[in-house]
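Notebook entry, structure prediction.
Reason for the run: the old model in the group folder had no record of what sequence produced it. Starting over properly, with the input documented here first.
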Amino acid sequence: MIKKIIASVVLLSLITIAIVQAMDNNKPRGVEIGAKAPDFTLKTLDGKQIKLSDYKGKKVMLNFWATWCPPCKKEMPDMEKYTKQAGDDVVVLAVNIDPENDVKSFVNDNGITFTIPLDSQRAKNPVNERYKISSIPTTYFIDKEGIIRNKVISSMQLKDMERYINSIQ
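New structure, fully documented this time:
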């Protein structure tokens, strides 16, 4: 009797592990490191239209964020510092995923000068869905050829931004 109970518990445990692993494998993990960064066209906060491919030949720090996200807000001052020191071969694009909120006031109140493309969830094919963003902030570091070299799913400090961009050739 005890052997049957132990065997049942072991079997149930193995089935549970298999189900959890199967479900975990189906979660979107975002665009993978080493992949070509999906191109997109978005309007910026100041009304200009940009394409990711416009920045070929430059290193790109592509960040996804929202005005209501505390970790996003926390990293914005360091992103601004980084933008000012980065040089001409680096571009910071901070894709806002909640343009229905007052992004302009947020940007003005925080003294942000880097480019803010707007990606609405109401759009037909939102960029954040193409990048499979499941948590914000998420930042992709893209090389001069448009290949994703690093991905960070959390807020960063200035030293992290420098390290990731400097690791790209």
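Summary: The first strand starts at residue 41 and ends at 44.
The old model has been moved to the deprecated folder.
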